[in-house]
Amino acid sequence: MIPEDIAVVVPRLGERYPFHPACFVCSICKELLVDLNCCIKDEKIYCERHYAEQIRSRCAACDELIFTEEYIRAMSKNWHTTHFCCWKCNDLLKGQQYLLRDEHPYCVRCYEILFSNTCNECGRSISVDSMDLFYKNKHWHDSCFLCSECRASLINKPSGFKTDKVYCASCYDAAFATKCDVCGEIFLTGTKKIEYNGKQWHEKCFCCIVCTSPIGTKSFIHKDNDIYCITCYEQKFFTLCIKCNQIISTDGVVYGNEPWHRECFCCTYCQTCLNGELFTSKFKKPYCAKCFGELFAKICHACNKPITGVEGTRFVSFEDRSWHTDCFLCDMCKKSLVGIGFISDGSDILCPECTRKKLSL
Fold first, then answer.
1. Residue 193 contacts residue 202 (beta carbons within 8 Å)
2. Potential cystine with 139: which of 39, 134, 223, 229 (Cβ 3.0-4.6 Å)?
3. What is the pLDDT, as a whole number, of residue 255?
């Protein structure tokens, strides 16, 4: 505080404990102490109500101070001995067994009338002193928790519930258990079961039809009543590249009735991609024009270049020699010999006119 501030000073505390007017509140309830009326204990200020509680306890029932030395401490609260009563019948609970419900005390009789469950087997109320066994909103006495078929006790044993009745594992399986669509064995009580598209499997039976690996939690594909893992389904039903054996997911190339990725369709010899390039084949294998010419093509007798047949190239063969049609020319006059007669004179090929000229010399 600064000297100019308005302050509240309590005489019993002296000026060493000044308060802002807005801070002059009860230490417990924090309510403003109007008219400057306050009570002091251990150098703390209180309203009259909470000051009294520092000296005497307050009854949780009547909200009055307890001046007698004898009182009841229950539920973390204090009570006059005559006020600690059943919330329903008002009978005194001093020295009696009681139960809590919604933070209110009840005698045993009222609690059982109001809140006890009814046994699903015998139809009687389950007392607070009895074991209350329950399953799926049904309750039983411990002595009534029996198999509906063989009447064996089900306490601490596996059980099944069907049509409002409870059964031991053996009787439940015999009456209601379904069978695995693969092995034909029943699903015992507590066994994990996988269901899909109207069928059901044991976990160990839910396998890929091709590789027989258990599917487990992995993705799968159902086709024609069979289950496939993703890998086997792709291998069986997707188009695979003949070269890399991977799925062709976009446009591919078909050559020799076999599918190829475009990038996998390469020259057999130099591995140059043939996508969009001229190529030919030998022994059902593709080759670029260059490799085919170097490996397999005949050599033109005139130009010494390979005759590849690419783009429908025609050629002329005579004895052990071959020519491109454009190169099949008379060795003297250089006229094309395609479609006309010619004469072989040693290594020369001549048209009839040049032959006559050569003979007349």
1. yes
2. 134
3. 80
Angle 209-212-213 (CA atoms, 0-180°, nearest 5)? 125
Q: What is the structure's pLDDT at 150?
A: 92
DSSP notation for 61-90? TT--B--SS--EEETTEEE-TTT-B-TTT-
How far apart CA 11 and CA 192 sit, in angstroms, is: 79
349 versus 2: the higher-pLDDT residue is: 349
Which residue type sits at 324? H
Q: Tally the residues of the chain.
A: 361
Distance of alpha carbon 265 from alpha carbon 275, whole angstroms: 7
- Kind plus residue range of the DSSP H or E element containing 134: strand 132-135
C-alpha to C-alpha distance for 201 and 183, rounded to whole angstroms: 8
- pTM metric for this prediction: 0.36
Q: Summarize the confidence of residues 182-205 as an average pLDDT.
A: 79
Q: Enumerate residues 6+ apart whose C-beta is below 8 A from 183.
A: 202, 205
With vertex at residue 334, the alpha carbon angle to CA 328 and CA 337, rounded to the nearest 5 degrees, is: 40
Instruction: Please report, for the chain, how many H helices and E strands are present, in that order.
Output: 6, 26
Exposed, middle or buried, 342 (CB in 10 Å: 0-12/13-18/19+)?
A: buried
| Residue 15: Cβ-neighbour burial (10 angstroms; 0-12, 13-18, 19+) | exposed
Please name the residue that has the structure tokens 């001549």. 350
